[in-house]
Write a structure and sequence with these properties.
There is one protein chain. With about 375 residues, this protein is α+β, with helices and mostly antiparallel strands. The protein has one domain. The chain has 6 helices and 14 strands. The strands form 2 sheets. The chain has an 11-stranded antiparallel β-sheet with strand order 1-5-4-3-14-13-12-11-10-7-6. A 3-stranded antiparallel β-sheet has the order 2-8-9. Strand 13 and strand 14 form a beta hairpin. The longest helix is centred in the N-terminal third of the chain and has 16 residues. The protein is globular and about 50 Å long. About 40% of the residues are buried.
C-alpha cells in the first residue's frame, strides 16, 4: 500500500451515542492510555456487564464525587482561573441556555455525516516550565480530592505562588512559539461509517513519507497529546445529558460574537468515561471547561477543558487543553468544515509543569492508494 499509515497513537469516538471522551498521552507522562468508544470493542462480556458498570460508576464517584466545577464561581473569580474570559459580559437579553445547547448540538450533528477522510500538516512544539518562568507547584488545581484543602471554590483553584495563571499561560506560549524547535507530522482524521448509520471518527498521527516507523517510535517518547480535537462532541445532543451547563454571558472571541457556556461532566450521569491506563490500572477522566459558541452559526469557536478534579494516584494535578476552531475550505468539497486550527496543552504532574502547542494547516482530502504487485 502506498502511503501506508505508520501510527503510534490513535483514538476514535462513535458519534450519535453516549461516549467516553478520549485523551491519549505518551507513556513517559502518564503511561499508556486506552481510547473509549460509544460501543467499545473491548467491552466486558454480557454476563459481567452490570458488575463492570457498577464498578466503573463507583470508581468515577470516588475520583470525582466531591469535585466543585469552576463554572460555579463568580464571574470575577472565573476570570482569575480562566484568563481567556477577560471581556466576558452578561445581559438579561441572552438566548436561553437550552436553546443555545440545542442549536449547537444540531450544528455538530449536521457536520458529522459530511466528514470525509482528511489529512493535515501538524506542527508541534513542546516545553517544560522551569526557572524564572515556573509558577510554583500549586498552580491552578482543584484540591477537593487529595490535595491541600482550602475553603471556597476559588481557593481550590488558587495559585500557591506569586505568578498568576495569565502570566503562566503567556510565558508558556511565548516559550513554545519562540524558543522550542518544531516537529512536523501528518495528522489524519478518518471517518468510518457502519451499516446502521453510526459514524466513528479516528484521529492519528503519522509520517506518510517515512519508509518505516522508527521516527514515530522515537517521537512517541516525546509527544504527549492526541485526541483532544474530539472534545467538541461533548455538545452533541446525544451527549449533552451527561454534563451540567451554565450560561456565563457573551464575549467577542477571534472576531466572533459568542455565547460563553461553562460545562462540567456529571459523575453520576457519565455512562462511559475516558481512561488513562497506568501499569494495568485504569483511571477515569472527566472534564469541565468553557465553550465560546458563535451567536449566528452556533459553531464552537474556542473550547477550554480541564480535569474535573486532579488524580492524586498518578500525581496528575492538572491537564488543560485550549482548542481553536475555524472554517476550513477543503479542495473538492462544496462546503467548509469546522475543524481545529490550534490546540495548546498545559499539564502538571508531580510538580512539573509542561506544555505543547499543536498547529494544523494544509487540510486536504485523504485517499489511501493501493499498489498491486505482480505475482512472484
Amino acid at each position: 500500500m502506498v502511503g501506508e499509515r505508520s501510527l503510534f497513537r490513535s483514538s476514535s469516538v462513535r458519534a450519535g451515542f453516549l461516549f467516553g471522551l478520549i485523551s491519549l498521552f505518551g507513556p513517559n507522562l502518564f503511561g499508556q492510555s486506552t481510547p473509549s468508544r460509544g460501543l467499545p470493542q473491548s467491552a466486558a462480556p454480557v454476563d459481567d456487564a452490570p458488575q463492570h458498570a457498577a464498578e466503573t460508576s463507583a470508581q468515577i464517584m470516588k475520583a470525582y464525587g466531591d469535585a466543585q466545577p469552576y463554572m460555579n464561581c463568580t464571574p470575577s473569580e472565573l476570570k482569575q482561573i480562566v484568563p481567556a474570559l477577560e471581556g466576558l459580559k452578561f445581559t438579561k437579553e441572552e438566548l436561553p441556555l437550552q436553546t443555545i445547547l440545542h442549536r449547537t448540538g444540531e450544528v455538530i450533528g449536521a457536520q458529522l455525516p459530511r466528514m470525509p477522510n482528511l489529512l493535515a500538516a501538524e506542527s508541534v512544539a513542546q516545553a517544560d516550565v522551569a526557572g524564572d518562568k515556573r509558577p510554583g507547584a500549586g498552580a491552578l488545581y482543584n484540591s477537593s480530592r487529595g490535595f491541600p484543602q482550602a475553603s471556597g471554590i476559588l481557593q481550590q483553584y488558587s495559585l500557591q505562588f506569586a505568578t498568576d495563571e495569565k502570566q503562566l499561560e503567556q510565558n508558556l506560549h511565548l516559550t513554545l512559539v519562540t524558543e522550542t524547535p518544531w516537529k512536523n507530522f501528518d495528522y489524519l482524521i478518518l471517518a468510518h461509517r457502519s451499516a446502521d448509520g453510526t459514524q466513528t471518527l479516528e484521529e492519528s498521527r503519522a509520517d506518510l513519507k517515512a519508509t518505516n516507523d522508527k521516527r514515530l517510535k522515537r517521537e512517541q517518547k516525546i509527544l504527549h497529546g492526541i485526541g483532544f480535537e474530539y472534545l467538541w462532541l461533548l455538545f452533541l445532543s446525544e451527549n449533552a445529558p451527561e454534563s451540567n451547563y451554565r450560561l456565563l454571558g457573551h464575549q467577542k472571541m477571534y472576531g466572533h460574537e459568542t455565547y460563553v457556556v461553562g460545562f462540567a461532566q456529571s459523575p453520576s450521569r457519565v455512562k462511559q468515561a475516558g481512561e488513562i491506563d497506568l501499569a494495568g490500572q485504569a483511571y477515569p477522566l472527566l472534564y469541565q471547561g468553557i465553550a465560546w459558541i458563535d451567536q449566528t452559526t452556533f459553531k464552537i469557536v474556542r473550547l477550554r477543558t480541564d480535569l474535573l478534579a486532579p488524580l492524586p494516584a498518578i500525581r496528575l494535578e492538572r491537564f488543560s487543553s485550549d482548542l481553536r476552531f475555524e472554517p476550513i475550505e477543503i479542495a473538492d468539497l462544496k462546503v467548509a468544515l469546522w475543524l481545529p486550527r490550534q490546540v495548546e496543552l498545559i499539564w502538571m504532574q508531580g510538580g512539573q509543569m509542561s506544555g505543547e502547542l499543536h498547529v494544523y494547516t494544509k487540510y486536504s482530502l485523504f485517499h489511501a492508494t493501493v499498489k498491486v504487485l505482480p505475482p512472484a
